[in-house]
Hints:
Elements: E1 7-9, E2 12-14, H1 19-24, E3 34-37, E4 43-46, E5 56-61, H2 66-78, E6 83-88, H3 94-98, E7 109-112, E8 115-118, H4 127-145, H5 151-177, H6 186-206, H7 214-232, H8 240-251, H9 261-289
Parallel strand pairs: 5-6
Antiparallel strand pairs: 1-2, 3-4, 6-8, 7-8
Helix pairs in contact: 4-5, 4-6, 4-7, 5-6, 6-9, 7-8, 7-9, 8-9
Amino acid sequence: xxxxxxxxxxxxxxxxxxxxxxxxxxxxxxxxxxxxxxxxxxxxxxxxxxxxxxxxxxxxxxxxxxxxxxxxxxxxxxxxxxxxxxxxxxxxxxxxxxxxxxxxxxxxxxxxxxxxxxxxxxxxxxxxxxxxxxxxxxxxxxxxxxxxxxxxxxxxxxxxxxxxxxxxxxxxxxxxxxxxxxxxxxxxxxxxxxxxxxxxxxxxxxxxxxxxxxxxxxxxxxxxxxxxxxxxxxxxxxxxxxxxxxxxxxxxxxxxxxxxxxxxxxxxxxxxxxxxxxxxxxxxxxxxxxx
Length: 291
């Protein structure tokens, strides 16, 4: 790491930017750069203008495979582009596309003839906030699973969880592309993304349970409550001690022996929590190394 002297003129403090860095990113006397104060007190400078230019994706597709098109739409949505337009050579049965998982929760995606458009793709700046919201929705799902609530309510919660996960991916990718706009470090975004994917898997298996027991749901809800508490302090106060306490609790959730489809879903739920515990301890160790 390069060390530079801070200079002072009156009440102003300044330092010279590295010449090689300025040449690489075409920094001149009229250039604007992004400046960000990080949670640990460090200062980051990014070679980009404060006002980001709008980007528009124009994509032409010959392949009429529904699964491939579905993946392309989701990828275009979570990209940091402000809008996108996918043009198809052939007309398709769009009811099949709209019934695909994840697409039902993407707002502002429209279909017009052989075009798929999203003219105003929303921006989400805090994926950690979305992650805690995602956990609350799953805990709400757990509370209604053991009631006589209509199955449509379970589907609605699952759809909201799926939408949260997609928005988290959109936020994370946008932060990678435009780091000056993010309030989280790259490694934190990585951990947030991993946890969100495991939470989505957990919710998928929850709604598949035919007769979930209150005891099982209560244990899962308690585990998710602990995750939420850890995430509330993740960027500032997450430590190895609290992470190990969570890992110890998760270890008490014994791996379920698969006997039928119901027990298979229970096993996948428990394993998703074990995977989250591994991410939490990894995150805590990184935080320890930053001290």
